[in-house]
Amino acid sequence: MHTAGRIAGSVLLAAGVIYLGYEVDRTEFWSLFLAFTLAFVGYGLLVGRRLEGQFRWLLLLGLILRIGLLFAFPRLSDDVYRFIWDGELIVAGENPYVHPPTYYLGEPLGDRELYGRLNSPDYHSIYPPLTQVIFALAAYVSPGWYGAALVMKLFLLFTEVGSVFLIYHLLLRFGLPVSRCLLYWLNPLILVEVVGNLHFEGAMVFFLLLSLLLLTRSGYGRAGLAMALSIASKLLPLMLLPFLLRRLWKGAFWRYFLVTGGGVVLLFAPMLLGSGVLDGFGGSLDLYFRKFEFNASLYYLLRAYGFYDVGYNQIARFGPLLARVAGMLIMIVALADERTDWKSLPGRWLAAFVIYLLCTTTVHPWYLSVPIALCCFTEWRFPLVWSYLIILTYTSYTSIPYQEDLLLVGLEYSVVFTYFVAERKARIKKGPRDARADLVL
Q1: Per-residue pLDDT reduced to its tens digit, 304-315
Q2: What's the CA gap between 251 and 240, in Å, rounded?
Q3: What predicted TM-score, i.e. pTM, was given to this entire model?
Q4: Distance CA 33, CA 69 (A)
Q5: What is the DSSP secondary-structure string of 323-370?
Q6: What is the spatial distance between Cα 234 and Cα 363, in angstroms, rounded to a whole number?
Q7: What is the rounded distance in angstroms from the CA atom of residue 375 to the CA atom of residue 220?
Q8: By the 8 A CB rule, do 209 and 170 touch?
Q9: 240-279: per-residue pLDDT in tens?
Q10: Mean residue pLDDT across the chain
Q11: Rounded CA gap, 226 and 230, in Å?
Q12: In a 3-state reduction of DSSP, which class is residue 126?
């Protein structure tokens, strides 16, 4: 890599990321968009060149930027306030799954200032138990908002360092260029949304990759425990389990799935035991598909049809329907997968996540964390293009109440789809095997 390109890329990436962490609010779209654009230009200059002699420096750069974001209170998301709320409830001996925040307004536990910053005060918490442990630890160590956020960020910094370590060793094991780990490690969206804005997709990625590495080393029991921890960070890895059926059928099938299932039960049991807990937690999950909508693709097309057909939003019908369609498609892809090697698994998992994201009613920018990590093991780069274009969703926050620009949503998905098609055509030219080697859609 030429020195000038390395310096320019590093400066642009660092300037954009630090500015996004400390100076810009999510309502300031043009400042935010310009900063992200500069950061992605720098990212392209760094990962789009030959990396001989610069790999260690770029690993250090990613670490420096994450450490730099530790001390910035989240500015692009208000989820942190719910994290702190749940943590304070646990420290006070309450179960955050039993009652929604509105229940505590008349109680001594009801912090009105914190309550006023919650984005969904009428709904039960849906954050899985591992995240709740971190929330409680943060609230216990530091009762102040800033200090609690810092404790949570330290945990995510640990998982991020672990993730790049795991990606590096998985690339070595699969015989792929280790420099690909920089696609995740230096991605501006990952930098800003995980450590910067406290999204626990970073923990899900870490434990998912740990499970994969342990599977490649025949550590099936430990791999099952790591998968359970990934599920206890976010529920989404549950949809990846069908891809392990064929790969483990003649080996450690029962050991892996018994440890995974037992680990999930043990991790969830302390929080989900109690009167009304399952109804509240399950009801909030159900409402997620029936009420919340943001930056969707297929759902927005169905919503438009619903307005045309009956004159009102049919999310309560189409949301659960698309969830079932996603589950069915993922199962079909998993059962049709005839490969039993571990190297092909990240591509199959990538397919599952893409199917889910296309069918869900809500796609926030940080939801791309897993696809960005998984694409490091494949030839597909459309998740990286998506990681830039999804920044357009922040236009929604420029007005109150929040309102999406559907033209920009359409532009986002159209460009990503076009890029995917172009990638697929390029792979078909190389041969049928290359075209289907990593991703089946």
Answers
A1: 988 877 887 888
A2: 18
A3: 0.94
A4: 18
A5: HHHHHHHHHHHHHH-----STTHHHHHHHHHHHHHHHSSB--GGGGHH
A6: 15
A7: 24
A8: yes
A9: 999 999 999 877 889 999 999 999 999 988 776 665 666 6
A10: 90
A11: 6
A12: coil
Contacts of 92 (CB under 8 A, 6+ apart): 109
Q: Does residue 123 contact residue 290 with C-beta atoms inside 8 Å?
A: no
- The residue written with tokens 């974001």 in the block is 69
Bridge partners of residue 294, in order along the sequence: 362
Is residue 331 classed exposed, middle or buried when 0-12, 13-18 and 19+ CB atoms within 10 A define those classes? middle
Structure tokens at 436: 């289907």
pLDDT digits (tens, 9 = 90+) for 170-195: 999 999 999 999 999 999 999 999 99
- pLDDT score of 441: 47
Is residue 294 classed as helix, strand or coil in its secondary structure? Answer: strand
User: Which pair of tokens denotes residue 214?
Assistant: 């342990």
How far is Cα 88 from Cα 60, in angstroms, rounded to an integer?
Answer: 35
C-alpha closest to that of 242 among 356, 140, 128? 356
Closest Cα to residue 438, out of 356, 365, 354?
354
What tens digit of pLDDT does each residue of 37-49 get? 999 999 999 997 6
The residue assigned the tokens 């696809």 is: 371
Tokens of 115: 């309550």
Inter-residue contact 192 to 37 (CB < 8 Å):
no
Per-residue pLDDT reduced to its tens digit, 125-176: 889 999 999 999 999 998 789 999 999 999 999 999 999 999 999 999 999 9
